[in-house]
């Protein structure tokens, strides 16, 4: 999952990175979809070389979709996976390589998160079932109609390595690859590498490890165009870490806020908090069976993101060479501070509160003083990171106070919104009550009048306009009215089946009962039903208008009952969903930590860790050491692969940044270890409720009273909202698995496994598939001609393939006995989706990756960087970006209590304003504020400094001259300057002056100074308070009378003014 909210922050701050995918229009003939010819040119006008599929990102929505009906069987789920891959392949159309990676056994650090999610999912499923039973009993007592009881929900916890479902899926995908290479011309020249769930490692990390190792080999084409599919936000960081400039991420379009709609009723235009529980207005009668439209896709361009980062992260006058590739690595590392899959985020940093923007400002201000970058090829320089944590720690008290103020404002706003919503609802009820006073006689007269008007129109052959609320149905053999709800349901099912099988064209041409051939307008051949639906009172009145027919009155009655039954079922489903949402919405708990008050650190460590800060000082230092070790582990994982399969962060919460001190003194070494086996991981992450996918002997260990590991599988466990609003956001307080005890216990029952279970518990290999006529396919065919028996295949040394021969893929190929050879028959046993491939043209072999080498964190020689696509206004819009209305605290100039300008121009508005302004008098004036385009240069050594424009971009031009560096107590400080608001002329200048025993901090904008005490450890703390650590965290900086006059105005940065209009002319 990566960093929560990171994708939203990125796509809103850097909007040009996202573009819509153009998908070829689907052609359907006689109800059968015609396959897209993927050998044709890409409709997106870009030809891609490699496509990588993080398979778990598509397996989950295919097996338990959120916006579509649940598949009826596992066979249908697997068929959905085939269709989903076809769709992505058709959008990207790779020409060289398709890499399909399913999550295998994860490192222990990720297993803890998987365990929390799966236990929480089982708990929520149990609570939902209990709540639904409670509602069903209440409705039954009230005599309200109920839908039939559904079977048990499909347990999606089985999408985990080692389960029978994953084994079935893996076997089916091997057939799928053989079939597509044989029958689809777009696959004919593509090599397919398939890594299933038996190969250890997360899918996205297996993909990135492959790319890192391939680009370090001779013969690798440096200008390959890569596309990776996946929904995890950490794919963005992983893609940046490859240092491949031609990289794109494809994912389903994500809607935010009201664009996405209410997750209670599924409708757009309001949030769940404002949901009134109304049923959705249907576009067609019984449209719940209508096929749901596929979600659109988006491209996220890493090359455009690199342009944005080259602009925003550029720092002038560094004492060392500025290198975009090194800065990108540091950016990836900073993103870990706000959360990832392996470490909890620091308490004072929330991405929703603008933490990443603050970190970027802090990084740019401190970089000139660090002597170098924070990271180097995945290795972290802890002494430099220590400076960053020191500054965050100094700002931590005010960050937490700012959060409290924002939460209070949000709370008052929500209360006001709730009052407004309630008043609107009351007014609407009063209005409806008044309209209900209209007599039934008036309604009947209007109904008869409308019918007579329609009959007159039909008599003269007129064409009636179709009103938006009218539903078109086809009259025919409507079943007679039943006497019970079940009969209505049966009739509804029959009607739905016939409606869904009639296309609009067929409906227009279908004859009616009177035998007359109708015109092409479907309204003249169908009955129209007008519905006036009042969901507040749950009253519906049908005003059915049908063509003359002997059974029209019976049909009216049947349709009325059918609609009433459907409405009851919709009401029940929505009622249950609303009740579950309310169950997951936890009422506000009392704020016992009170981060905005003094002593918050004592309260935090006592509540979250059970430690007293004074008595358990060594334990808190150990927490900081483990967190620092985790930061190093994560960075290495992203750049060099898993460096320790056994390491994990042994706490549920993170320390404060102010307690991450002297981290360069910590022992953060890692031991590689080895991954769990698939069944061992299942025992480490699954709850007892999902034990059905385990072998019987393993299953008993979860529930047997004398099991030595019974305490690993609690049915009831605590969850901590930790300041959040929804139950799914809570911290799951499960006990951590004792790895040694678990593995020792499993060894006692392992001999009971049968052959099939042993195969599921084994470690597998990657496989390479290609057409037998491909250059690599010829190499593989030679292997099978040389090694014909199973024993020879198993003992084969294989053959090496180089990148220049295999079009960029380097590794070793080995034959295996179960390979489907050319001209052989390949079958798929998948129930109603079973198929047979009579003449296979694909060939496959085991693929062994080359020996690991160090990742090259730079652009490769020969790389041709694409021409920049960003314009000056794109960069200027980034500098004014503020997420969630928060005020930047780190190095902020203050002013206006953080209030943002009430109006600002978008990039389009900037262009319009430029066009309307008088013509500037000189070429230099034209680019004074928005930068001058430079001549494009594609050298991989200076790409970062240019980013398509010179250093006079709008967010660079007004900067003051080079700052002087001052030194005190072993720490270096520099002038701090930055943009204070959207006004490019508003800046503040801050300077530290050095004294023997204390530092003076002078703020030119506020005209005040603050004093700090210096301690022997070289750090600076506020004067107030006997305990320097406590005073640093819980008190404001003590005011201090400045020594001597402030710097004269000549030393202050002077804002640039626009020349008068006469000068511009």
Automatic annotation (TrEMBL):
This is 5'-3' exoribonuclease. CDD domains: PIN_XRN1-2-like. Keywords: Coiled coil, Exonuclease, Hydrolase, Metal-binding, mRNA processing, Nuclease, Nucleus, rRNA processing, Transcription, Transcription regulation, Transcription termination, Zinc, Zinc-finger. Its main location: nucleus. GO terms for molecular function: 5'-3' RNA exonuclease activity; RNA binding; zinc ion binding. Residues 502-512, 994-1016 have a biased composition (Low complexity). Possesses 5'->3' exoribonuclease activity. May promote termination of transcription by RNA polymerase II.
């Amino acid at each position: 999952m990566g960093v929560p909210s990171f994708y939203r922050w990125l796509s809103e701050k850097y909007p040009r990175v996202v573009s819509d995918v153009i998908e070829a229009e689907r052609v359907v003939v006689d109800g059968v979809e015609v396959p897209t010819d993927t050998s044709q040119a890409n409709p997106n006008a870009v030809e891609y070389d490699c496509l990588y599929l993080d398979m778990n990102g598509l397996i989950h929505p295919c097996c338990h979709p959120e916006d579509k009906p649940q598949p009826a069987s596992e066979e249908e789920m697997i068929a959905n996976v085939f269709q989903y891959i076809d769709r992505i392949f058709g959008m990207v159309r790779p020409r060289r390589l398709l890499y399909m990676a399913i999550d295998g056994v994860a490192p222990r650090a990720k297993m803890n998160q998987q365990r929390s999610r799966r236990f929480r999912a089982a708990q929520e499923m149990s609570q939902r079932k209990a709540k639904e039973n409670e509602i069903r009993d209440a409705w039954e007592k009230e005599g309200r109609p109920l839908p039939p009881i559904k079977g048990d929900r499909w347990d999606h916890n089985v999408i985990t390595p080692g389960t029978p479902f994953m084994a079935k899926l893996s076997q089916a995908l091997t057939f799928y690859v053989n079939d597509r290479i044989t029958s689809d011309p777009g696959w004919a020249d593509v090599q397919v590498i398939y890594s299933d769930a038996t190969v250890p490692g997360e899918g996205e990390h297996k993909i990135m490890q492959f790319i890192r190792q391939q680009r370090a080999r001779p013969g690798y084409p440096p200008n390959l165009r890569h596309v990776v599919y996946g929904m995890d936000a950490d794919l963005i960081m992983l893609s940046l870490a490859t240092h491949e400039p031609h990289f794109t991420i494809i994912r389903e379009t994500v809607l935010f806020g009201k664009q996405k709609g209410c997750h209670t009723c599924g409708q757009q235009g309001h949030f769940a908090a404002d949901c009134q529980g109304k049923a959705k207005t249907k576009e067609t009668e019984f449209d719940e069976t209508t096929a749901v439209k596929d979600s659109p896709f988006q491209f996220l361009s890493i090359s455009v993101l690199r342009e944005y980062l080259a602009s925003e992260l550029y720092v002038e006058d560094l004492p060392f060479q500025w290198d975009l590739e090194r800065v990108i690595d540091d950016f990836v590392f900073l993103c870990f501070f706000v959360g990832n899959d392996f470490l909890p985020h620091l308490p004072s940093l929330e991405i929703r509160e603008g933490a990443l923007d603050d970190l970027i400002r802090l990084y740019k201000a401190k970089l000139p003083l660090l002597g170098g970058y924070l990271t180097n090829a995945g290795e972290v320089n802890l002494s430099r990171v220590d400076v960053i944590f020191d500054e965050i720690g100094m700002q931590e008290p005010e960050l937490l106070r700012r959060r409290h103020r924002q939460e209070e404002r949000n709370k008052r706003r929500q209360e006001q919104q709730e009052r407004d919503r309630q008043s609107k609802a009351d007014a609407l009820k009063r209005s409806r009550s008044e309209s209900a006073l209209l007599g039934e006689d008036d309604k009947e007269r209007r109904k008869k009048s409308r019918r007579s008007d329609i009959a007159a129109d039909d008599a003269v052959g007129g064409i009636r306009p179709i009103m938006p609320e009218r539903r078109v149905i086809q009259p025919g053999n409507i079943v007679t009215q039943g006497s019970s709800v079940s009969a209505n349901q049966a009739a509804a099912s029959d009607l739905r089946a016939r409606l869904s099988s009639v296309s609009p064209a067929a409906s227009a041409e279908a004859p009616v009962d009177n035998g007359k051939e109708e015109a092409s307008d479907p309204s003249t051949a169908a009955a129209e039903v007008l519905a006036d639906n009042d969901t507040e009172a749950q009253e519906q009145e049908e005003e059915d208008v049908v063509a003359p027919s002997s059974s029209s009155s019976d049909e009216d009655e049947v349709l009325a009952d059918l609609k009433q039954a459907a409405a009851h079922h919709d009401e029940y489903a929505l009622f249950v969903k609303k009740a579950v949402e309310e169950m997951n919405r936890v009422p506000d708990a009392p704020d016992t930590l009170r981060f905005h008050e003094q002593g918050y650190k004592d309260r935090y460590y006592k509540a979250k860790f059970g430690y007293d800060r004074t008595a358990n000082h060594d334990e808190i230092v150990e927490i900081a050491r483990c967190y620092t070790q985790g930061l190093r582990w994560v960075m290495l994982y992203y750049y060099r692969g898993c460096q320790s399969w056994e390491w994990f962060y042994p706490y549920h919460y993170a320390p404060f940044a102010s307690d991450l001190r002297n981290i360069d003194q910590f022992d953060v070494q890692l031991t590689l270890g080895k991954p769990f086996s698939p069944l061992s991981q299942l025992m480490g992450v699954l709850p007892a409720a999902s034990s059905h996918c385990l072998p019987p002997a393993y299953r008993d260990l979860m529930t047997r009273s004398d099991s030595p590991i019974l305490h690993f599988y609690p049915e009831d466990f605590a969850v901590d909202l930790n300041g959040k609003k929804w139950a799914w956001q809570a911290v799951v307080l499960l006990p951590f698995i004792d790895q040694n005890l678990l593995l020792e216990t499993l060894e006692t029952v392992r001999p009971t496994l049968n052959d099939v279970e042993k195969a599921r518990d084994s470690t597998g290999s990657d496989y390479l598939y290609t057409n037998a006529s491909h250059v690599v396919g010829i190499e593989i065919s030679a292997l099978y001609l040389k090694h014909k028996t199973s024993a020879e295949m198993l003992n084969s040394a294989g053959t090496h393939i180089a990148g220049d021969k295999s079009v960029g893929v380097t590794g070793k190929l080995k034959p295996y006995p179960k390979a489907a050879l050319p001209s052989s028959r390949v079958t798929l046993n998948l129930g109603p989706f079973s198929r047979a491939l009579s003449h296979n043209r694909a060939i496959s072999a085991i693929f062994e990756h080359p020996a690991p080498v160090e990742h090259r964190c730079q652009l490769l020689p020969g790389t041709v960087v694409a021409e920049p696509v960003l314009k000056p206004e794109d960069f200027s819009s980034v500098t004014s970006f503020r997420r969630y209305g928060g005020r930047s605290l780190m190095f902020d100039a203050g002013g206006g209590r953080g209030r943002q300008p009430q109006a600002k121009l978008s990039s389009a508005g900037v262009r319009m304003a430029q066009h309307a302004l008088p013509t500037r008098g000189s070429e230099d004036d034209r680019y004074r504020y928005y930068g001058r385009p430079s001549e494009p240069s594609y050298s991989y050594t200076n790409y970062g400094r240019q980013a398509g424009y010179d250093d006079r971009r709008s967010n660079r031009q007004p900067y003051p001259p080079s700052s002087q560096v001052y030194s005190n107590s072993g720490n270096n400080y520099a002038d701090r300057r930055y943009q204070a608001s959207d006004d490019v002329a508003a800046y503040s200048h801050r300077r530290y002056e050095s004294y023997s025993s204390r530092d003076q901090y002078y703020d030119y904008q506020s005209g005040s100074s603050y004093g700090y005490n210096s301690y022997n450890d070289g750090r600076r703390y506020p004067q107030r308070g006997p305990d320097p650590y406590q005073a640093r965290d819980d008190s404001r900086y003590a005011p201090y009378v400045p020594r001597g006059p402030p710097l004269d105005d000549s030393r202050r940065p002077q804002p640039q003014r626009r020349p008068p209009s006469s000068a511009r002319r």
